[in-house]
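Task: sequence design from structure.
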């Protein structure tokens, strides 16, 4: 290959250009990365479940999307309201030719204007006003329909908030449950370490055997394995909580609450009433039904005359007509006589939509009551499990204490103490599970009744 200084120069120029382009893009990439990082704030320190919910409600992208959806629906309501008032437009016409024509104002210019322009040169400008006088209730019902949808979107925001709050509670209590299981595993390690210490001391004093030392060491190794596994689950549960809260996974949060047995205030009748009156999904569907009924009325109004008042001021200059100005005021009336079944079909579709939404509402009411009743069953089950788990823990602790004393006094054997330790460890885990189930049942009841 023959060396060519020109090719080398071209290569340097290209390389320099590439580097300049890449250097120019780096700030863009860094800005995007920074924006993505800023989207998930870092939270450090201790958090109660209520504080976690407050942070989650503030950071939830789902709630932000629901709020944007609500604002869009509110804007559509304003657009519908604007149709019920006067509209003014100005339209200009500049033409040249050898024949008379009829031209309309550009699409989107409301009210629209149709102008007859003469041959030769023509320059005209008008100002036009149009306002509804009577539409049979069409415009009013279109406003009601839009407002009903806006109300539905408002309840959609509340529904998103209650759902996020429930998911955060669920994740928070799951993290507490994992933390409790890790504490149970830590207690088992502590007990096992004491066993190893005692068996080694007895063996050194000639009162024990090597098998007892080996068995206690095996118990300690298994306890440490269990602790490692539970700590891993605890860390994963915290990561899950951070993700549900919508915060950075680099956060370091500490749970300040504890699993507790809680008896909710109220009764089945009160909770079912709360669900029917407060559940945002039901309220949203109720607003959609009101909107759909208004849409039916709006379609029916199309069978009535549509009457508008109009006023127009016009000025022009023309090669064939000279200059001139003028005005027009009047009333326009329109009534379709035959539309090949379009209005009838629109009315049928609107009525069917109402029936569909009403059926969905009845089904959702039944499902809402079912969710409340199931939450109550879960609460009763959690109550019974808590009582039995607490009693089981007390018995297991007493049994372990007695057997430990017997082993220390050489009236019992190590296997009995190990069995008692296993029973005690399981009893502690059972109590943690019962408390977790009670917290979750309470969280489910809150969501089922539409409460944050």
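Answer:
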């Amino acid at each position: 290959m023959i060396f060519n200084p020109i090719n080398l120069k071209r290569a340097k120029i290209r390389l320099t250009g590439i580097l300049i382009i890449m250097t120019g893009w780096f700030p863009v990439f860094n800005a995007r990365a920074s924006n993505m990082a800023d989207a998930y704030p870092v939270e450090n320190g201790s958090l109660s479940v209520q504080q976690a919910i407050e942070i989650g409600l503030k950071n939830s992208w789902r709630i932000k999307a629901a709020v944007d959806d609500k604002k869009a629906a509110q804007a559509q309501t304003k657009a519908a309201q604007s149709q019920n008032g006067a509209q003014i437009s100005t339209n200009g016409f500049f033409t040249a030719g050898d024949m008379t024509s009829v031209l309309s104002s550009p699409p989107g210019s409301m009210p629209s204007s149709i102008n007859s322009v003469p041959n030769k040169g023509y320059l005209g400008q008008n100002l036009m006003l149009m306002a509804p006088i009577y539409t049979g209730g069409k415009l009013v019902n279109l406003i009601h329909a839009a407002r009903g949808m806006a109300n539905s979107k408002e309840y959609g925001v509340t529904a998103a908030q209650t759902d996020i709050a429930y998911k955060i509670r669920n994740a928070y209590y799951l993290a507490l449950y994992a933390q409790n299981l890790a504490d149970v595993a830590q207690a088992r390690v502590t007990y096992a370490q004491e066993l190893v210490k005692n068996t080694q001391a007895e063996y050194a004093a000639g009162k024990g055997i090597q098998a007892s030392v080996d068995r206690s060491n095996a118990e300690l190794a298994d306890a440490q394995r269990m602790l490692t596994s539970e700590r891993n689950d605890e860390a994963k549960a915290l990561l899950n909580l951070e993700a549900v809260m919508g915060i950075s996974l680099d956060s370091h949060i500490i749970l300040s609450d504890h699993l507790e047995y809680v008896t909710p205030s109220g009764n089945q009748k009160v909770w079912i009433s709360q669900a029917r009156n407060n559940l945002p999904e039901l309220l949203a569907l109720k607003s959609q039904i009101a909107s759909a009924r208004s849409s039916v009325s709006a379609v029916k109004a199309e069978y009535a005359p549509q009457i508008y008042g109009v006023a127009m001021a016009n000025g022009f200059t023309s090669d064939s007509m000279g200059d001139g100005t003028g005005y027009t005021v009047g009333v326009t009336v329109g009534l379709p006589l035959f539309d090949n079944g379009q209005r009838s079909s629109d009315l049928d579709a609107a009525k069917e939509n109402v029936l569909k939404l009403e059926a969905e509402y009845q089904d959702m009411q039944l499902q809402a009551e079912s969710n409340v009743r199931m939450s109550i069953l879960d609460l009763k089950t959690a109550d019974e499990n808590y009582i039995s788990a607490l009693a089981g823990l007390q018995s297991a602790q007493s049994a372990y204490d007695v057997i430990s004393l017997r082993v220390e006094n050489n009236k019992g054997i190590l296997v009995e103490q190990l069995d008692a330790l296993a029973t005690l460890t399981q009893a502690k885990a059972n109590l943690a599970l019962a408390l977790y189930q009670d917290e979750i049942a309470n969280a489910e009841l809150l969501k089922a009744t539409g409460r944050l």
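The chain has a mean pLDDT of 89.
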